[in-house]
Amino acid sequence: MPKPSDSRTQRMLDNWAQQGGRPQRRTIPEAIPESDSIAGPGKRADERIISIPIDEILPDRYQGRLRWAIDIADLEKLYSGQWDAQDLLTTIHRTLTNNPSPALQEAWQVTYDLAHSILAEGQVAPITIYPDRTLPSGYRYLIETGEGRYWAYQLMRWLVAHDAESLQVPQEEWKEDPHYIRAVAISTPSRLRQVAENEQRQSYPS
Fold first, then answer.
1. Which burial class, exposed, middle or buried, applies to 188 when counting CB atoms under 10 A from its CB (0-12, 13-18, 19+)?
2. pLDDT in tens, 8-40
3. How far is the C-alpha of 46 from the C-alpha of 159, rounded, in Å?
4. Beta strands in 44-145, from DSSP E residues, in sequence order
């Protein structure tokens, strides 16, 4: 499994840059009972930012930045609800083991680096999400911006289950709970915001 590619100081600087350079509170949030409001599940960190169960969120299949260079049929299994994100990561890891490609290796490494940075230093910038009633059972929100951070959290969970030592962060030092991601819930998505986010973060994995 990959190891952190930089020193702790460099990881902190990278984390700052990758997530927008805006610090947020770094305590692990606690869940509160689910609500039907847009900003329902999770605990408010301030007026707008919430902490939401990662398994209630799906990536937007139509956003213009492809994360994983894999068979589109496997991605469709995620979008349709046949697989969850952990199933997809298991498939990606199997592909990396048996028939790796440079693009897939790079995507895994940058996602790992971001996961390690968030776990050790905290999530700086929230993702943005919006409700969608057409999603498969169990899902409530689609990602507008921040898919890289979503996959970093999912990879944290996958590594905890399959290769916890590779995280190299003792659990008592975790700054975030891998099961909850900081997010801003909006009512209406914007493709312009997605394009702007993709352009802004071309050099980063977030």
1. exposed
2. 556 555 655 555 444 444 344 444 333 434 444
3. 30
4. 49-53, 57-58, 127-131, 141-145
